Every structure is written in C-alpha cells, then in structure tokens.
Amino acid sequence: MKNLIRPLSMSALVVVTFLAACKKEVSNQSNENQAEPSQVRLSGAIDDPQAVVIKTPFIVSSNLSKTAGKVSSYSIAPLLKGRPTKGDITAPTAKITSPGNSTTASGIITIAAEATDNVGIASVKLVVDGVTKDSLKTAPYNFSWNASSVADGTHTITAIARDAAGNTGSYTITVAVNTTITVLPPATTLPSSYMLATPPVKAQGNEGSCVAFATAYAARSIEQYYRSNATGFDYATNVFSPEYVYNQTKIASDCGSGTAITLTLDLMKNKGVTPWTIMPYSDVNGCSLFPTSTDDAVAAGYKIGGYSKLLNTDKTAIKTMLVANHPVIISVILDDKISNAGPGFIWNSAGTGNIGHGMIICGYDDSKNAYKVMNSWGTGWGDAGFTWIDYDFFPTRAGYYVYVMNY
C-alpha cells in the first residue's frame, strides 16, 4: 500500500516564494458560472457520518497530541438491569467520564468511571467488547487499558456498578482504536505566511455542490498540480470535475441537497474522479447525469490514497499541511457576515445564520491572524472568490475536524 502522507521533513517547510497569494491561475478556458452579488449562493455541507469519522486516520501536532483523543462526548443514558424483587431494589448509577463517547484511542489510556448508590457501591467492573478486564471495589474507579491490545476499529467500553444487594447499573461508550495517528514534530521553521496555487474560482450556482467543489475541484486539483510539478492548471489534466463527485454522493435526488466531506473523499478513494473536460460542471443540466463505464475507467487513474483528519484548533498541524502543499478541506456554519464578504474582509465575529458550507483553506497569514479560504460562489463574492477567517474564530464556526487528502 502506498504511503498515505509523505514524511514531513523540515525541508518541506521552506517557503515557495513565487506563490504570493492563493493564486488564481490563468486558463485558456472561460471561467463560466461566475456568481454576481445578486445571484443565489447555495451551500450544501452536511455532517460527516460519525462511524466514518472515528475510523479516519488522525494528524495532530505535538503540542496537542496529549489531548487529541478528547473529542466532544454524547449523552448516553445509563442502562439499568439485575434488580432484585425485594429488599434494596434501587440500582446504582454508573458513568464513564473519560474518554468521551466516539473518542479515537491509541496506546495506553485511562478509563475513568463514577458510580453512586442509595446504600453503597460494592464494585465497579470494566468490560471491553463484552469481556471483563478489571474490577475495583473502591473509588476512584480509574482503569488502565491498552488500546493496542485490540484491532483497529470500533469497540465498546462498559462500566458496570454493583451494590451489596446485587443491583447493577451500567454505562457504555464506543471508542475507535486507530494506530495510524501521526504526531507532527514541533514546528520551528513554519513561515509567517504561505499560499497555495489554486484553479480559477468558479460558482456552484443553483446546486448544493459546495462540498464537491471543495474536495474535487479545489483540493484534488491542487494536489495534482503539486504532485505533477505542473506550471499551470489545465481542465483536461489537473482540474477535476465536481459534477462527477456531487452527482454520485448527494444525499437525495434534489439538486439542492448536500453531501458530506467524507462521502466525497470516500468516492475519490474508491472510484477516483474525472478531469473537468470529461464531465464539465453545469448547474442547469440537472444533477442526475452519471458517469459511463468509460468515464469511470478514466476516473480510476486519479484515485486518492485516503484521507486524514485534523482538529480545527490545531493551527500548527493545519499550517504544516499547507506548507507541505496539502489544501485543508473544511465545513463551516455560514452567517450573514461571511455570506456578504467583500474585499479586505476577515471573518472574526459571528453574525446571524446557520447553514453548513464546504470550502478549502488554501493559505494563511500570521500578520492577519487568519486562514485564506477559497469558495465556490464565483469571483463576485469576497476578494475575487477568496476571503479570510481569523485563526481563533475559526473553531467556533468549523466542524470539529478538518481534512486533508493522502497520497
């Protein structure tokens, strides 16, 4: 199997000085579908399936590696069972306080549980995938578990509290064991700014295809540009079709329906993507056009090796990926401020609105304290189709994870 991410040597962090901005390359093809301020601006990003997210390889910078597994937890109601028919019939309550539900685990972790009862707790037992691993009779109920002892994938962890009368209460979470966590070394040579070359900005028009534009048209095209040492963007060779991806991954037949970042990345991992000229994008010809077997054969030559996730708070990892020429794919919750962005705008405070939208980060500038993003609303929006998002504001509007493609 191919290496998913190229090793990131410090030499990969040297600035390429001829790229002065998230550069719009000049193409010999017309830049059709350009949105004007009066045109509708659709979104189309939906939540990524949790079962897919927790199995996605994880990239984290060394300064955040100790907390990388602590993702937001979900409320799981305690499961009560084993009640006697007389005497003390009140079951104890158990809860796992760490790690959170749907956490990615690697190596030796501490599983912390709490238990309460109207009389007293006799024991708390740790069960992994139905097999008892340990039992403690006194608090604190902190268990040490080696995640490397099980195969990669999703596993259940249950804490079972028992009282003296034999009543039991349990609490179960799931964790994803993933041994492919990549910890980046401390960044000492990241430049103060860096911008990727990009294909010409286009407009998604009247379809909910923003995610396909972000992943296929923007990110996949940029990846091909750098992998092939190209000097420009060509619609026949290194600019890819959002039509091919969107029409196969949208969640409903409606052309306004959206898709998820991971759904589009999985399609490109399994089937690939065609160059733009094979399936040119149009928002007026319907979204039911599907590729032929010949198209699929071409697409197979442009598969990606996979993809990885990063925390939206990990500025070092995001910048390191950009400097290594990997665009970062994001979903954000739009508001009226960014929807009406113009030249010089930096999104650093919230307005009104809550629509999911997909874009890419194509650069950063420490003097602005901001990431530069490429949108799919044409050159009439923002600064010729680009805008800036403040580093510290970004996590308040972005999905918990952001994504990069792997080789």
TrEMBL record:
The keyword Oxidoreductase does not apply. Belongs to the peptidase C1 family. Keywords: Signal. It comes from Lacibacter sediminis. The keyword Signal applies. One of its GO terms (molecular function) is cysteine-type peptidase activity. InterPro entries: Ig-like_fold, Papain-like_cys_pep_sf, Peptidase_C1A, Peptidase_C1A_C. Pfam families: Big_7, Peptidase_C1. This is Peptidase C1A papain C-terminal domain-containing protein. One of its GO terms (biological process) is proteolysis. Residues 1-20 form the signal peptide.
